[in-house]
Amino acid sequence: xxxxxxxxxxxxxxxxxxxxxxxxxxxxxxxxxxxxxxxxxxxxxxxxxxxxxxxxxxxxxxxxxxxxxxxxxxxxxxxxxxxxxxxxxxxxxxxxxxxxxxxxxxxxxxxxxxxxxxxxxxxxxxxxxxxxxxxxxxxxxxxxxxxxxxxxxxxxxxxxxxxxxxxxxxxxxxxxxxxxxxxxxxxxxxxxxxxxxxxxxxxxxxxxxxxxxxxxxxxxxxxxxxxxxxxxxxxxxxxxxxxxxxxxxxxxxxxxxxxxxxxxxxxxxxxxxxxxx
Length: 277
Hints:
By secondary structure, this protein is α/β, with parallel strands linked by helices. It has twelve helices and nine strands. The chain starts with a helix and ends with a helix.
């Protein structure tokens, strides 16, 4: 009876913590350890209880956060990972270059597993799931531990699944109508894709014109390089830029981690010197 009562008390305590976190609009483990602590909500003892019970029950803490945490770096590495074994070394290479935010695209069978391994092996990295085309993929991304999502287009099914799972997502847009619809669906941080193909910086500036006063922000992605990066960063409504040049698929397949780290470090230098117009 004593053991049963003890287990009941532990379950009750974790339920209270989880409910409290949901009410606040966040989940336990929302940000990396250096950004937050459970001490204010009950101290190390409660944290230990939560971790132990989570491990015993198979509970996977959903680590969604305010997107401002990772957009401050102003760049998201867009990666295609063919082999899940390359996921952690790639994340470590990006981290060594100074970047703590990446997006693993759902273009390969190992995408979800790659995200899962990065969440577990390199917790300093903010990890997102890209190329989300369906509501089911959103759920897969959530289950894998992704902290945010990116879609190449504007899908109501993807939007609905994201809202249902309290999962921040950047839907893709290229026209005023798509921007308006995205805002109606509750999204104000949008992916401008494919950026260079659809007119680049000048097209984005024109698109921003009618919406600049609304608070909408853009993450231009597609065809952007280290050379054109500063032009996008100079636009005030650009929250961050998505790019794959520092971790191209070929570099990942070749396991050229040193090159990836060097390219990442160069990109971070550009960002450090860039200032919005």
